[in-house]
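LAB NOTEBOOK - FOLDING QUEUE
OPERATOR: T.R.
BATCH SIZE: 2
PURPOSE: Compare the predicted structure-token outputs for two unrelated chains run back to back under identical settings.
PRIORITY: normal
REVIEWER: second-year student, initials M.K.

ITEM 1
FIELD SEQUENCE / FIELD STRUCTURE:
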Amino acid sequence: MEDPELINQAIANNVRAQRAHRGLTLDALAARSGVSRGMLVQVEQGRTNPSVSTLTRIASALGVTVARLVEVADVPTVRIVSKSDVVTFDQGDVQARLLVGADVPMILELWDWRLAPGEHHDGDAHPPGTREMLTVLDGELTLTVYGRSHVIGKDDAVLFTADRPHRYENRGEEDLRLIMVVAEPRETHDH
């Protein structure tokens, strides 16, 4: 896996560059993303290890993928990501690994999530038209969208509209592991 300091510096550089490219002030990005100006300063200076939710909000506000924000090097035509280069967000009993992502011609991210029994992750609403599809490899997922819960068992799959808040929850007694793809329309916030 990449050195955490190297990843934090890549995030800092990429957020700053994407914000500058769009001509946004820190205050404007804070308003668009719902992330405080102070947190954005910390991120852009590489002084914090931002959560998945924070990076998702910043990426959505900038019209790029989380993968683009954590990317350490340029993306070649063919990109092979070795397991040692996968970026991991470790939040104790909830772990998310961004396996690979792209933002042209549409924003795509491939995730490997693990949640211990009793744990959950609240996903923020993505931009309009965003879809998520996932399959459960181990355990059982309780997915809540629009206040309605759905149970997805091992080897089952689900596709849902992710432009509203949603929750991934492990109500079972064994570890939950799922693979998820996020597909977001490639419409930047520049218009």
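ITEM 2
FIELD SEQUENCE / FIELD STRUCTURE:
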Amino acid sequence: MTCSQPIPPASFIDISIPSQELAIMEGQRILQTYPVSTAKKGAGEQKGSYCTPRGWHQIRAKIGAGHPLNAVFVGRRATGEIYNDFLKQQCPERDWILTRILWLGGLEPGHNRYGNVDSAWRYIYIHGTPDELMRGSPESHGCIRMKNADIAQLFDRVAVGMKVFIHG
């Protein structure tokens, strides 16, 4: 299967926190892998923890179709800016959300859905980040970060409702 083909409906996304890798799975077969960066503070489900939530999720929304690589998003809205060195210098500590957003919703009540553990209410995404921040280590504020070309490619292949399993 080539990278541009749609993902079969029975497939899912597997995200390994220890290996910092996202894999598109069809049963036990890996169709594609991508490097990711999960939370600097590790795994955890609590609101305000800045940790990456574990368990089964689904893609609840796809945001950013048609925007260029490195488009800047704030509050799930494109700002019209394109990330560059000037913006990087202006806001060196900012948690940049770029290119595309796959907003995740938890599927396990009491673990990653509802109350203080709800992944959707925590605004947990798979999203683009400045490529230079993809160093193979956990550095996010809870989301799953990807290189911009990778998130654009993944975005075009997945559908709302696709299952995502995060573990580690």
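REVIEWER COMMENT (ITEM 2): The mean pLDDT is 94.
FOLLOW-UP: none requested
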